[in-house]
Amino acid sequence: MNYEFSKSEKKIARKIIETGLQRDYESSIRDLEKIILRWKSNDLTNKEAYQELYRTVKENDKYIARMYDDMRGS
Predict the structure, then answer these.
(1) Most buried residue, 19, 23, 64, 71, by CB count within 10 Å?
(2) Tens digit of each residue's pLDDT, the chain (74 residues)
(3) pTM above the 0.85 mark?
């Protein structure tokens, strides 16, 4: 079933999508912040912190892509 949104519904959909994206970006940044705090308190070496940051960015990017790719309010 293919449903065509009206202009006003598309506008609402874009706002909802943007709100979700912003929430997920913030969550991702908070994940990174936790790693940086562990690094600053010397719980992680430079290499460990870098690897965790890289892995976390990659995982969060995949999550966001799965959630929002091909989703648009247009």
Answers:
(1) 64
(2) 677 889 999 899 899 999 999 999 999 999 999 999 999 999 999 999 999 999 999 999 999 999 998 775 55
(3) no
